[in-house]
Amino acid sequence: MILIAAVSLLAQLPPLPAPMDIPSPGPAGQNGAAYAPQPILRGGIIVPLYPAASPFLKAEKVSEPEKYNMSQAVHARISSIVNIHNPSIEVHLADKSINTGAAIILVAGGGHRTLNVGGEAADFVPFFYNYGINTVILRNRLRADGYNAEADAVNDMLQATRMVRAYAKQWGIDPAKIGSMGFSAGAELTSAGAIKYPEFDQQNNSGPFAGISSRPDFVGIIYPGPTPFARNRVAPPVPRDVPPAFLMCAAAGDRVHAIWADEYFQAMMTVGAPNIEMHIYGNGRHPGDPLPDGTRMSGGLTDRLGIPMGTWQYRFIDWFRDLGFLQKSGVETKAAKDVATYVAQPLPPPPGQQKKKTQ
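Above: the chain sequence. Below: its structure as tokens.
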């Protein structure tokens, strides 16, 4: 009887309106002009990373529009983006009354096949806003679209860092509080950018951003893909002013990514870099992996069925606050002071060569 009544009631209800304001890519660039990326969230300030004639871009591709993969369950939600040939940043600023000056460049994952900007970028904008943190969504180029992730995508991330630093004053951002947070494949980029910025700055010391450092003031490395210190790679040198890092992953449920996180952590411990924090949770899954009930683990900022890993974002905020990034803009951070102290000290001896303490 209840079911029959409900069906009868539905038959009498007026039809629902169609969803409004569904985002869509802009049109292709006309007459060879570069495609103009569109904001995926309201109010986003879009800035392409390179001029249309830049040698970083493919002239035959730069006019092509991006392609959005929309959520099948939630109207107007962009799950991921592909066909990115004119990489860009989308800036979302915190209100002046709470603005700390800190800015986090969000680098989404997707296995270098797609850019999962829904769960690993857009969702973090309101979360960080509440802490007075400005957010920047990076749309970097993908391996699936014919680019080299280790070169092109890393360059995109470093270019984004120095671009945010160049416009920091106009945006109310502290140029000494700009860093990046990457997820999975995006964490491959943030971990690489954390050590490759000297090389990038040296090779790209011309144009409007010449002399502006691409060094991130901090990095978030969240359930990362292989970092530069993965066992099958030749470990690169670690810059003396390597930025502080926050690492997070599940263990048994995401073992391979946890090993990659640990390899980065061990490399930083070997050189004695300050303010490196890692959380390896015993229980969890990589986003996209199947759960016992047949569903798949969703993106970065989810409750994760109430397990401790679902609160990792608050551990990041604890670390971020501890290093002084949530102070007022213009106040020197503990992170900056600790890096300066570290740089002034001699390198620690390699493990195994340290003098044993007397008993």
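The chain has a mean pLDDT of 92.
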